[in-house]
Amino acid sequence: MRGKYIIIGLTLLFGCKPAPEKRFQLISPEESGVLFSNDIIESETFNVLEFEYVYNGGGVGIGDFNKDGFQDMFFTGNQVSSQLYLNTGEELKFENVTETANVGTSAWCTGVTVVDINQDSWPDIYISVAGFVEDSMKRANLLFVNQSGVNGGELRFKEMAKEYGLDDMGYSTQTAFFDYDHDGDLDAYVLTNALEKYNRNALRPKKVNGEGASNDRLYRNNGAAQPLFENVSTEAGISTEGYGLGIAIADLNNDGWEDIYCSNDFLSNDLIWVNQQDGTFKNMAASYLKHQTHNAMGVDIADFNNDHLPDIMVVDMLPNTNLRQKMMLPGSNYERFKMDLKMGYQPQYMRNTLQMAQEGQLQWSEISQLAGVEKTDWSWAPLFADFDNDGQRDLFISNGYRRDVTNLDFTAYLQELHAGGFGDPTQKRKDAYKKLMNLPEVKIPNFCYQNKGNLAFEDVSESWGLNTPSFSNGAAYADFDNDGDLDLVVNNIDSPAGIYKNNSKENNWLRISLEHNLVQGSKLKVYADSLVQTAHFSPTRGFVSSVEPFLHFGLGKRNKVDSVEIIWPDGQCQTEKDISINKVYDVAYKPNERMKKEQTEAAPMFTELFKTDLDFTHFENEFNDFGRTPLLINKQSENGPPIAVKDADGNGMEDFFIGSDYGQKSYIFFQDQHGDFTNVEVPKEAYFEDTDALFFDADGDGDQDLYVVSGGSHLEGNSQAYQDRLYLNDGKGGFKWQKGLLPKMDVSGSAVVAIDFDQDGDLDIFRGSRCVSGQYPIPANSYLLENRGGVFKDITREQAPELVKMGLINDAVVADFNQDGLQDLAIAGEWMPLKILFGTKNSKGAYALSSKSDFDTKFPTGWWSSLAVADFDQDGDLDILAGNLGLNTNLKTAKYEPIEIYAADFDQNGSLDPIVTRYLHHEKWMLATRDILTFQIPSMKRRFPDYRKYAEARFEESFTKEEIQSAYHAEISELRTLYFENTGSAFVAHQLPIETQFSPIYGILIDDFNADGYSDALLVGNSTASETIGGWYDASSGTCLLNDKKGGFTLLKNSGFLANKEAKFIKKIKTKKDADLLLVGNNDARLQVFKRN
Predict the structure, then answer these.
(1) Contact by Cβ (8 Å): 589, 573
(2) Does residue 862 share a domain with residue 743?
(3) Which regions form coiled coils (predicted)?
């Protein structure tokens, strides 16, 4: 027995290693001395049903209020007094000095801004005030002016908001100070969010003339010895209402004048007030952003990818678990979404948005889903900061909500409670309050994402020690212990503030302190070997908070900083060199050089031409596919306009056809000998929607005839509206639709290519079919049409039987992939792998197309949308570029975790029900919300009588085995656009630059754009055909891939190729005037024309 105890003791001594220290360590209130807790007391008359912002919480302000070299913290309280804590200089220990410093409050305090308002070098405290009170005097904002400079260093404040003209009483959320008019003093922008008596998501006209109660305020500092602020909102153009929750200041257009980003809640869009340099602002949100966050809360602006451009992070409330999502998300409402747009609102979606600035453009691409930061539940404060000092800014997001008021079962209860308007209002209030008190809490850990580079973030909340559940609101970062890493402080509801010590030790760093009477708006660049980082000094960021007054830079393993460039707010420049690392570097205002112009790069490769005679605009007729099939995740009706290029009139100059939607006009643009274009209408029946087109010699008379594919989904089932058309050329460019030359085709088409599959010298046709309208995703029949003297015969079942119900075809190309002298057919479609049908010839001389081959063509299943071929690696065979859905989507795949679809008439009502499933946290769930599912299949209400039962039901528990086994089933395992290298016996997939994954790719043009002898590619895409929960795919601005001559591609940035609309086709045309032009066919938008410089 004695030996046994010795072994146990040795095991404990040597065998158990201590748990590794996590990056963040939560310091207890007893250790830190910070006892502040933003406690909320509710009642029948005061709760979230009466005051919807009761749980929005308070903020944190950081500053060295007593100038002892350590950062202090100030918390705003709602029902409790705000509190000030001084840093004692001991490791993360603080002392509450609220009473002696005279900063106690009794109002409902929201945001806090630490600012040296009178430029006496002592930090002051400005507090925004709101609350559930009608007495406006109780909503007056507060200004605590630091008196230490006149009190011999004794820390004491004096409340002076009224004396300064800053006692705003308009339901303030937060205030940012900056010098908008460049007069050398700080002005104030007060973010406002007034209480309303109506549903703030109810559709109504925008309030854009300053009449809205939630119109923000701009106060100009009139620059006296004691500053006096004047409300100049009207004359400055601040006149558009927004339910403001977040504000950030940045120079978004890099013109040296700071702009304002306001993140707004509910119906109201975010506002981007761009400084016009004349004392006025212009809202550019609709121009800068393609879509926004719906319930926008906090916002931060910083350069997260080190491209020296300002990126924007706005947070919402989309949960990251299936249960929470299904309990919160109602059905998508496409008709309401379209009404919002018609009323002038920009598209909004209920998720976080990460807007990445595009080089050379004043436009941002929203990539939150690609970066993996779109769903962090009920979120408040996003903060970009380099928490591990590796040279890349990470992302912290605070979240939590005291009661789950978005619970759809609770919403349904309230609707039923108040239905009809009958009953005792007092009793109803009591019943609602009782139900409210029984709601679950949204008490979850905050999120932290490590920046992994290449636009990717990894959730490290647990591994970094940020795993304590809380109701967190405002947050700020600061180096409280002066050890060179950023600590965190969070203002919590009903629990002590969270103080997180950062234990990072592995990397080097530099902290910069700017010493000048006005540093707000200063810009810095730090050069350390190949790493160049930028920063903009503006402490007000996140949510109702302000961070430390330093600029912090992680350096990774780099052991020196080569130089620091500063552009001061007045435009003066300064360069500091030979800077020691791992220290605070103080920079005094000593300009030593003139303003540097941004380094001029080579002229863009492409230029868009706006004044041409190629004037065409595609108009998309509004058709709501979701009204017929609510479970669809994309409309099937937005596919044009197709473009086809050839010399159509035989004059030696290239012309082009451009198609149209049903009820619209299609044209051929003829080019004359001088390079001028004139257009001629191509007649068609009103019900035809053009989806692809091809010029080829159909009848062997030496001229170019025109084949036009009919598609779309506006007519259900099989219809003559989907019959393709063949227009014969009279030899002079006169085209006439000749009926009877094509067999009957009554399913929606998508693609056409010419292929001489039988080697008889004339061109046959492959016609790809998109779908049977109303029967998605059941594969439709595609066609192989043999040319018999200009009359085309359907020989699909005889010569290419695999084309019968092959899939939902999107594109096709013809090439000899196996170099046997026969033409092969490559096909792209969704819910299917790429397919190659090889040209074959049997011993009897019969030709056919078949996938059977010694060539390995095991392609992954995908949402394949486009194809292009070329010998990219110059090894003598043809490779493939294949466009796919991309990674910027709420649909995700992983090994053994595909996206799947099950389609059947589950309720036996005569319509097909397509059920899409996905994996979340390694479990398989239906994608659709309960409202959408029951709208499509009403009988499911019996199976799922409430939202919780649906939210808890895995897919296999939602249908019987018989129902699942009898349904049509398909899956998708790959969403990336890829390059497939032809090795001579197989195709090998290679990744492309991450920017190619921003959006679906619908058009690919191959050419040697940089004249280096290797084939390059232009890619276009985007789609507004998606359902309204996942939202538009609109992040692509066109992608130029240059061949790296090593078997891969590199992204050409700032190429000048700005194809940022819903681009479906791209073609090249040779012209007399401008050599080659590039034509981009955009859905529901004008034709874009580019030239190569």
Answers:
(1) no
(2) yes
(3) none
Q: Residue 760 phi/psi, 5° resolution?
A: -105, 5
How many residues are listed for the chain in this entry? 1093
Indicate if the pLDDT at residue 874 is higher than 80: yes
Alpha-helical segments (H) within 891-973:
930-936, 940-943, 947-952, 955-958, 961-966
One domain, residues 181 and 307: yes
612 and 466 share one domain: no
Q: Are residues 183 and 296 in the same domain?
A: yes
Examine the fold and report which residue of 482, 514, 546 is the final residue of a domain before the chain moves on: 514
pLDDT band at 10 (very low <50, low <70, confident <90, very high): very low
d(CA 995, CA 407): 37
- With contact defined as beta carbons under 8 Å apart, do 114 and 131 qualify? no
Mean pLDDT value of segment 310-337:
95
At 994-1004, the pLDDT tens digits run 999 999 999 99
Of the candidates 1080, 31, 1065, the residue with the CA atom closest to the CA atom of residue 499: 31
Q: 3-state secondary structure string, 29-62?
A: HHHHCCCCEECCCCCCCCCCCCCCCCCCCCCEEE
- CA–CA distance, 679 with 137 (Å, rounded to integer): 68
* pLDDT per residue as tens digits for the range 228-248: 999 999 999 999 999 999 999
Which CATH number does the domain housing residue 668 bear?
Answer: 2.130.10.10
In a domain, 434, yes or no: no
Q: What is the CA radius of gyration of the chain?
A: 32
Task: Look at phi and psi of residue 102 and say left if phi exceeds 0, alpha if psi is from -120 to 50, else beta.
Answer: left
Nearest partner of 457 among 535, 374, 366, judged by Cα: 374
Over residues 150-203, the pLDDT tens digits come to 877 789 999 999 999 999 999 999 999 999 999 999 999 999 999 888 888 899
Measured CA to CA in angstroms, residue 20 lies from 13, 25, 459, 626 at distances of 17, 12, 18, 52
| Mean of per-residue pLDDT scores for the chain | 95
Query: Does the pLDDT of residue 597 top 60, yes or no?
Result: no
Q: Are residues 635 and 492 in the same domain?
A: no
Average pLDDT over residues 929-935: 96
Report pLDDT for 5: 42
Boundary (domain end) residue, out of 498, 514, 530 = 514
Range of the structural domain that residue 253 is part of: 24-316+351-404+440-514
Tell whether 168 and 44 lie within a shared domain. yes
Name 710's bridge partners. 690
Would you say residue 12 has pLDDT above 60?
Answer: no
Closest CA to 888 of 352, 372, 457, 452: 372
Which phi and psi angles does 967 have, rounded to 5°?
-80, 150
Crossing angle of the two packed helices 425-437 and 408-417, in degrees rounded to 10: 170
CA-CA distance, 50 to 506, in Å (whole number)? 50
Closest among 357, 350, 279, 273 to 319, alpha carbons compared: 350
**Any domain includes 597:** no
Q: CA dihedral defined by 414, 323, 401, 295, rounded to 10 degrees?
A: -80
Coil vs helix vs strand at 712: coil
Could you tell me the CA-to-CA distances from 632 to 112, 114, 625, 629, 753 in Å, in that order? 46, 50, 8, 6, 28
Could you give the CA distance from residue 931 to residue 946 in angstroms, rounded to a whole number?
10
Q: What confidence tens digit (pLDDT) does each residue in 68-125 have?
A: 999 999 999 999 999 999 999 998 999 999 999 999 999 999 999 999 999 999 999 9
Residues 6+ apart with CB under 8 A from 14: none
- Please check whether residue 1000 lies inside any domain of the structure: yes
| Overall domain count for the chain | 2
Assess whether 632 and 754 both reside in one domain: yes
CA distances from 238 to 187, 260, 295, 440 (A): 14, 11, 21, 40
- Has residue 202 been placed in a domain? yes
Question: Which of 422, 397, 401 minimizes the C-alpha distance to 410?
Answer: 401
508 and 634 co-located in one domain:
no
Identity at 485, one-letter amino acid code:
D
